[in-house]
Amino acid sequence: MKNAQELSKKNSKGSVSDMTTWLITGCSSGLGRAFALEILKNGDNVVVTSRNADDIHGIVENYPDTALGLSLNVTDKEQIANAVSQAEAKFGSIDVLINNAGYGYRAAVEEAEADEIRTLFNTNFFGTVHMIQAVLPGMRKRKFGTIMNVSSIAGRFAMPGSGYYAASKFAIEGMSDALRREVAPLGIRVVLIEPGAFRTDFAGRSLTGSKKEISDYDETAGPRRKKNDRTDGTQPGDPQKAAQTIIKVAKGSKIPFRLLLGTDAINAIRAELDGQHTELENWKEISVSTDYK
User: Fold this and answer.
1) Catalytic positions
2) Tens-place pLDDT, residues 176-211
3) How far apart are CA 223 and CA 97, in angstroms?
């Protein structure tokens, strides 16, 4: 059997050909699990990862030839290097990396503890960075690859109580914007996935919050504290449809840099951009008054 490096070559339009090897982080549940299942169903190779390998056994057992299940904590650089090495040894290459591992965190800015913020960024942001740094040498060598970073609509604006989670996503967005300009001449593509609310356990098991609560923030950050969140199980987004969309985009010859997922995402970002444009125009005279004359 030909290895994935032979099978996953660009066609004349620069898109991905028939068989692709994907590495996905955070596959135990939610969007990551939906991505892995749908991509395997599509016939591609998938390196399915989770902090606990037992959580993904049910995914990989049905695809012995095309699935590789690995324990991977994205805060552990040794585990990252080992996962990339095993993926390349089994399939020959990593064609698409989906940085999906991450979790939600709710707290007013004043309420958060330093160790909670640090842990959040170590997973959501630095975990993404270290995965990218680990796969880029292989992609640069082949002059081919796609990196898909799961951000959020919170990567564009922040709601009360979600300042630190949004900051971790803002960081991913800024890094990704520079990355795409750095690697485009090397044949490597970068996509930011910005989901709205999807029916996963993001607002359930995957959501954490500050231990400290300050009553002065009960009316602002308070409604978004984990104990008050009632959105779990009511979100409008369908994870399977999100996975099908990701496959279609990754296999296309043209890709967006920012890919919004969900009608709620479109509406929220449109309102945010309209508000930013209005503010820009309202304060333009003050802004330009700082120029040399």
Assistant:
1) 151, 165, 169
2) 999 999 999 999 999 999 998 876 666 556 688 888
3) 35
Among 183, 94, 175, 171, smallest CA distance to 135 is for 94
Distance CA 116, CA 139 (A): 34
Nearest residue to 136 via CA among 177, 100, 88: 88
pLDDT, tens only, 108-143? 999 999 999 999 999 999 999 999 999 999 999 999
Residue 71: name the closest of 100, 88, 50, 55 by CA: 50
CATH for 17-265, among 3.20.20.190, 3.40.50.720, 3.40.190.10, 3.30.70.100? 3.40.50.720
Question: What whole-number distance in Å separates Cα of residue 243 and Cα of residue 12?
Answer: 25
pTM beyond 0.85: yes
Nearest partner of 120 among 221, 208, 197, judged by Cα: 208
> Per-domain residue ranges for the chain?
17-265
